[in-house]
Amino acid sequence: MKRYEKPYVTGALIGINILIFLLEEVSGGSTDTNTALRFGALYVPLVRDYGQWWRIFTAMWLHFGIQHIGVNMIVLFAIGRYVEAYFGRIRYLSLYLFSGLCGNLLVLATDWITGNYGVSAGASGAIFGLFSVLLIFAMTPGIKRQFPIRRVLFSILLMLLPGFSDRSISLAAHLGGLAGGFALAFLMNYFRRLRLRAERQRKITGSDQI
After folding, report:
1. The whole model's pTM is what?
2. Total structural domains in the chain?
3. Does residue 142 sit in helix, strand or coil?
4. Angular region, 40: left φ>0, alpha ψ -120 to 50, beta rest
5. Which domain holds residue 19?
6. Local structure of 62: helix, strand or coil
7. 145 belongs to a structural domain
8. Does some domain include residue 210?
9. Which residue in 99, 120, 124, 170 is the catalytic one?
10. Which among 125, 121, 68, 126 has a CA at the least distance from the CA of 92?
11. Per-residue CA distances from 22 to 13, 124, 152 (Å)
12. Are 136 and 145 in contact (CB under 8 A)?
């Protein structure tokens, strides 16, 4: 697995999330619903009635309280640096953002359909998208022994479980991020392996011509 000297993108993502959290705190409190809405939390009526679709993006940078951001940033640091090393910075950032958008889109869809409107925010969808990469690792020759599939599935299940019993946790965001992240990561890994195979073939061909 390719490694950079430092996981710069992961560090930057953590820094941005913490900075925005601090801004929330000094602007009315991170647990205050009105503050969250001013900063761009997701709320179906504002999207549906006022066309504020940008909230699908901004909501992934907001958090409710120190525990919320603390848990998310710890998991982001623990997993993000490995995903960044494997896919590279640009693809890793794309995966993070895409997963966050998928999570918030599923929240929007489920709230819209059920009529149960809640104010939603958090990086959990993006982080679950990174978590899905562990499934990719578990299926990839050369590294899958380091990520036993049963252990990976059990870890993901443990992360999902609280969302089934705690209504303050957005299960839709977690599932949307997980599914969207897995789909994109699967495609990126497929083309990554094709590229590496082509590079090895060129090296072999070049060696034969010397």
Report:
1. 0.92
2. 1
3. coil
4. left
5. 8-205
6. coil
7. yes
8. no
9. 124
10. 126
11. 14, 18, 33
12. no
* CA–CA distance, 56 with 42 (Å, rounded to integer): 6
pLDDT averages per 10-residue partition of the chain, 210 residues: 75 98 98 98 98 98 97 96 95 98 98 96 97 93 89 93 89 97 97 88 69
Q: How far is CA 201 from the centre of its chain?
A: 34
Distance between CA 101 and CA 125 in Å, rounded?
Answer: 8
**187 falls within a domain:** yes
CATH number where 85 lies: 1.20.1540.10
30 labelled catalytic: no
Computed on alpha carbons and rounded to an integer, the radius of gyration of the chain in Å comes to 19
The catalytically annotated residue of 30, 63, 170, 174 is 174
pLDDT of residue 2: 54
In a domain, 155, yes or no: yes
Cα–Cα distances (Å) from 134 to 20, 138, 164, in that order, read 28, 6, 22
pLDDT of the residue at 166: 87
124 in active site: yes
| Amino acid at residue number 70 | G
Cβ atoms of residues 179 and 107 within 8 Å: no
